[in-house]
Design goal:
alpha/beta; 10 helices; binds adenosine-2'-5'-diphosphate; two-stranded antiparallel ribbon; globular; about 40% helix
Length: about 280
């Protein structure tokens, strides 16, 4: 499994198994077991996905040693703030039945559209994350859905974010370019949620044409496109054949022409969840 290096030296497997919208119980437990079996060593969950128990169970039943896996969870919006984040972290650990996390993220920034003191709220949440990191309970800390103006204050604190997880798939390049550039300049690894646009990419004629040309599926083309943009993809699937297929993306390359055509698919497949205006 290829890895990327976080700004604190920790290695992160270069693709992760996504679990957003996978129900708790057998669906997520069996999905994780299949994923580990096929070679995934990185699992992404969140308190808000309400499947951490099933994720933990799948990891336990997969038989793999805990330290062989890189596991991420996230603090939900209702738990922002210092004390609440500390408590939310402990609850996630308990549901996962873990004694540490590899990566913990602030799921969404508090933003100016909802909070006058949004920047202070993010700093208070970050202070709790930093404390947990320094206590060794988390190997790396970061954020999700942060734009450069949300990240700015955190960059001036003692521990800088190591990861920013954002929506990323064909059609999103222009919208996310500024965040990609900022993260690159500041040594923050960008992870991509919904690399298949939650399925919205699959019928696009340009993507179908390129997939046929390179003899891969549209899903593999989307995942590969993320990788070639330096973004760590987190494809979600509960279907064993797809789980396996989504990992087979390190043995082919999209040429400049294909990349250019996909880059040009602008403003397509966006979920519409803008961190500055979301109502959750
Ligand atoms: P399923 O979980 O039923 O296999 P995203 O990662 O962008 O959120 O997309 C997830 C969606 O894409 C899910 O509906 C998932 O279905 C579907 N999916 C995942 N991998 C593939 C694939 N290789 N081919 C087709 N559909 C896929």
């Amino acid at each position: 499994m290829q890895t990327m290096k976080l700004n604190n030296g920790i290695l992160i497997p270069a693709i992760g198994y996504g679990t957003w919208q996978t129900p708790d119980g057998d669906a997520v437990t069996n999905g994780i077991k299949a994923a580990v079996d096929y070679g995934y060593r990185h699992v992404d969950t969140a308190a808000a996905y309400e499947n951490e128990e099933g994720v933990g169970k799948g990891i336990l039943e997969s038989g793999i040693a805990r330290e062989e896996l890189f596991v991420t969870s996230k603090v939900w919006n209702s738990e922002r703030g210092y004390d609440t984040t500390l408590a939310a972290f402990e609850k996630s650990l308990k549901r996962l039945k873990f004694d540490y996390l590899d990566l913990y993220l602030i799921h969404w920034p508090a933003s100016a559209s909802r909070f006058e003191n949004w920047e202070q709220i993010n700093l208070d949440t970050w202070r709790a994350m930093t404390e947990l990191y320094k206590a060794g309970k988390i190997k790396a800390i970061g954020v999700s859905n942060f734009k450069p103006h949300h990240l700015k204050a955190l960059m001036e604190t003692e521990v800088k974010p190591m990861v920013n997880q954002i929506e990323f798939h064909p059609g999103m390049l222009e919208l996310q370019q500024e965040t990609l550039d900022y993260c690159k300049e500041n040594d923050i690894i960008v992870e991509g949620w919904s690399p298949l646009g939650t399925g919205r990419m699959l019928n696009n004629p340009v993507l179908i044409e390129i997939a046929e040309k390179v003899n891969r599926s549209v899903a593999q083309v989307c995942i590969r496109w993320c990788i070639q943009h330096g973004v760590l993809p987190l494809p979600k699937s509960i279907t064993p054949t797809r789980i396996k297929q989504n990992l087979q993306v390190f043995d082919f390359e999209l040429d400049e022409d294909d990349m250019g055509r996909i880059d040009a698919l602008d403003n397509f497949g966006y979920s519409g969840s803008d961190p500055d205006t979301v109502r959750f």
